Amino acid sequence: MKPLAPVIAFLWAGVAIGATLIATPVKFLAPSLALTTALEIGRVTFFWVGIAEVVLCLIFIISVIAFGGISWRISLVPIILFAIQRLGMMPILDARALEIIAGNSVEESNLHTIYIYVEFAKVFALLLVGTIGIFFAGRDSPDEEDHEERVQISAKATVTADHREGHSYAAAPRHVTLVEGTWQIL
Known about the structure:
It is built from 4 helices and 5 strands. By secondary structure, it is of the alpha+beta class.
């Protein structure tokens, strides 16, 4: 079965690009749209995009666990960035938007700019995860736990070897070492 995680990563990146990096900023360029109305639309948009991203994140996690195709360590990057956005930054930004909609003044804050940088980082991470997943499709995930393979030396000798550079194991009557990505039988 082909890995599903890279496809979900690309889909998730597409949703983030379309909804948060294109559609959201564009509405603030409309000259006849009042700031409070744009903020109300933004709140609704981010609510529904947030639900879509939660669903995609869960499918992504399940697909990484169930089908592999990408290192779980690499997969954690967009998940952690998404959690930082949704759990740490979004509640504060939402409260600010509600204050502005209510007509109250709010202090200057760089949080919105930081949120945008985190969004770009998340999209980049998702695109990278998808690309790595497609590149490694059909191969074992490059996790450290998966570095062992069985190497047949002869009909009588089999050795378990470690992919990490410089590790070697004796196998009667020979010695096997990984040197510059190539197995050397000494």
